[in-house]
Amino acid sequence: MGPQRGRRRAARGEALRRRPPPGARVVTLVSRQVELRGSSDFQILASRVGDASGVALPPDSAPCDECAREIATPGERRYRYPFTNCTICGPRWSVIEALPYDRTRTTLRSFTLCDDCAREYEDSSDRRFHAQPIACPQCGPRLAALDAMGRTSAAEEGALAAAVQFLRDGQVCAVKGVGGYQLLVDATSSSAVARLRRRKGREEKPFAVMFPSLATLRRDCDVADDELHALLSPAAPIVLVRRSRLSSLAAEVAPNNPRVGAMLAASPLHRLLLSDVGGPLVCTSGNLSSEPICIDDAEARERLGAVADLFLAHDRPIARPLDDSVVRIGPNGLEILRRARGFVPRSFLRTEDGPPVLCLGGHLKSTITLAVGREVVVSQHLGDLDCESARALLGRTARDLLRFLHGRLEVIACDLHPDYASTRLAEVLAAEHEVPLERVQHHHAHVAACAAEHSLQGPLLGLAWDGSGYGEDGDLWGGEALVCDGARALRFAHLRSFRLPGGDAAIRDGRRAAAGALHAIGEAGFSAIAAAWFSPCELAVLDAMLERGLNAPRTTSVGRLFDVVAALAGVREQSSFEGQAAMELEYVAEDVEDAEPYPLVLRGSAPIVVDWEPLVLEVVADRRRGVPVAVVSARFHEALAWLAAELARRAAIPAVALAGGCFQNLRLATSTRRRLERAGFTVYSPSLAPPNDGGLSLGQSWVVTHRWQERSHVSRSTR
Amino acid sequence: LAHGGGGRRMRQLIEGVFLPAFANPTLLARHDSAVVDVVPDVTSRGRVALTTDSYVVKPLFFPGGDIGRLAVFGTVNDLAMAGARPLHLTAAFILEEGLALAALRRIVESMRDAATEAGVAIVTGDTKVVDRGKGDGVFITTTGVGLVPPGVDIGPHRVQPGDAVLVSGDLGRHGIAVLSVREGLAFASPIESDCAALASCVAALLAAGVTLHCLRDLTRGGLAAALNEIAMDANVGVLLDEPAIPVSEPVRGACELLGLDPLHVACEGRMTLMVPAASVERALATLGSGAARIGQVVEAHPRVVVLKTGLGGSHTLDLLAGEQLPRIC
Ligand SMILES: [Fe+3]
Ligand SMILES: [Mg+2]
Ligand SMILES: [Zn+2]
Ligand SMILES: [Zn+2]
């Protein structure tokens, strides 16, 4: 082999690595010389069942430019056909039933290709060469409009027209999207959005909005370049952007929230529907309160019958539920907050070998991770595990993943919390598969998820700040600084603990958390503040609960400290959804650029206890003095950012990871990173895995892999 | 009360306190064993039901009851849950040195009244005194013997999908009443324990011709524990309709304030019933106004209890490992 040829090959490899074809990702680049075999054309041979690997599992993709042009061009064979796709776009993970990925093992197997489609499929020069889910108006899935009873009122163009009319009239449409049913309603109509909220039983949690085009999106939202890039990416996720001053969106879309989850059409069907309606539509997953998104037609009609006025459905079955993904542009670029359609099942990689391990994650924003060989596959967001349907989905997904990566399971992992539904399932599965069960502390898993994503080796200071997780001492942790190295995590620092009178009730009601914090510091003004919130009788009971620790678990959580400050500052007392108080506290400070941090005191060592007493006292004093809440909020955020840098300085470890749900707070994430970087630390934060509990299963897989490595190392060296 | 040691003072205690209160021919015979007819009269036939239970409660006296009533009703209720007619009880007392004699008298008298109310005789017993600090005043163990009428077969094995799930009255009063006195909590309105005997109630249901598939008294862990156990034992699902579950306003308010779920709170005179649909009306009529149909046994989600909320949502009613600990992150 001449050096020139070698150089050319290296250059080709480099080009491939830098600019892979659409949808492709270069994992490893191996160059090898092979004998000429004599065939001159490009062929794809029939796959053999059993020789597939998970690496090739593709995520769903929004219409590519070519397909988009095709459905918009009169005279084209697929003009206005809602199920148009090609080799680089269309449904994938949402239709794949088994491996290897061939049409016969997708939900399109019952649609026989017509002659035209078959020709495109066979022709290596066609852009539909071997595109498994291809379809056309002759041979593919068809659209239908139905009522809740399942009676078809119109088909194809008629069905689309009916849906458009309903939406224009402010009615609620259930649309069978890529990964499940969605509920759509006119986003510019207050009454229409309020109707959807009422029927869905969702009080204030923000809705996402789908826009017909970039131009219409820009009318309602201020979009930065990297946000634009995310919106237009094949995953077509919901992107959190700033609502513009002149936004036409109804206030009910996202009450008290300057941001909005915006998205563009994720499929040709959405493209056609949105452009025919001509305006933005609320687009939320088709479910009741916290249940998983519906994928089955009959089930959707039963469960959403009282919510939707019309069902726009079709006959292409959905293999598994996939919610719309949610991303935002953070201080260090793209951050996936909810990972589902468009990103799943793209795998992460283990840097070292480990046993096949199945990790069941947490209880909220649940995901499952299966690691086999070097591959680490994180499931889609499965939702909160309070309802039976979500738990059933958790079980199905676990079996689903095991089937796809047919590895012999060696370990199962779960959280330390005894009552997480995922812990229960893990116990059952471990017994069933006769494998050991490894429990991983919640915040250790949060930090490990970040380490896993960035393949971090060596010691790391992990700031795991979240709502709450079960600690090694049975307290509710959530303001932890952990020194992580290999499989070990050392509690380097934590917040001073306070009690949450009423447990869960105190998480929904920040006044209770505030009462707990004020009680902990014996603040004389406690009764004065609390008297405005509670009746004397209620106050006496709360006091007894705090005094005796009666259903008043201790917490060290930063998320709960947010609730305390939000309540004391008068921003938000009770929350109707998780993280609401913290979000509103963040948003009131939007116009304050910089602020002096409130004082925090660090006491002792191993672990350091972070005393928030002076901070809380100043918040109370500032409130009394009439200091604007925006300033109070900004000073609180700065105090936490200061704390991060101070803890890093004391730990003197160059690498710092920011993990846990609190870092979904953009102001906190940005300030913290800035202060840490200014002090010379290298900051890592989750990007492709969610910073919230959606990342726990990935973190568990990292910890368990390291435990296994250390054990096998020990057994090797003792042998 | 001073340490007994089996001597004269113990004899005084037994003769002065226990015998007069529980006076009945069998007990007064003062044998080492009580000798009783298992079949009390010629018309009765059936199988013998036996149960035993120990009672510890702090405080010993609470609104609506005391440890004595609890010790009688608890065991009588366990017999009744098998459909048995309770006949005889034994009672063993572990007394802590220093317990006021007046308190013991009150407990014993309360047991006598409770036994009369439930139609059982306390036929034999035992008393031990332990050192100060080795017990919470009084521990009581009672054993009960009852007779299950022929043809009566009640238990989880008979539960089947389609059965209605009923409760005999409002939930959570006992647990909250005990908690409120123990922890010194003053709620807006006082709450009394629901402590009561269920045997006559079960007898009335049988007499009315109600087909009873399963009965379970709602003690520790409340409705949630009872239904989860039955769901697991019978390998069925249970679907509950939350708005239909009776909880009194004071209990609801207290639970809200305490952050407790009333469905996990203990009762001492309440039961859940699984009956075939055809028996629902007659069962509710016999049970009286406090009773309610709260859900049904289903084939879907075996071994899981699901609660349908008022808003059309639903969540799983779990059997908790320990305390109710937040899972919100
Ligand atoms: Fe967490
Ligand atoms: Mg018992
Ligand atoms: Zn395409
Ligand atoms: Zn075709």
Automatic annotation (TrEMBL), chain A:
GO molecular function, one term: ligase activity
Domain of life of the source: Bacteria
EC id: 6.2.-.-
InterPro entries per UniProt: Carbamoyltrans_HypF-like, Carbamoyltransferase_HypF, DHBP_synth_RibB-like_a/b_dom, HypF_C, HypF_C_2, Sua5-like_dom, Znf_HypF
One Pfam entry name: zf-HYPF
Keyword Cell membrane recorded: no
PROSITE patterns: YRDC
The entry's keywords: Ligase
Coiled-coil portions: none
Comp. bias regions, Basic residues: 1-10
Cross-referenced NCBIfam families: hypF
Family: Belongs to the carbamoyltransferase HypF family.
PANTHER family on file: CARBAMOYLTRANSFERASE, CARBAMOYLTRANSFERASE HYPF
Protein's name according to its UniProt entry: Carbamoyltransferase
Gene name of the record: hypF
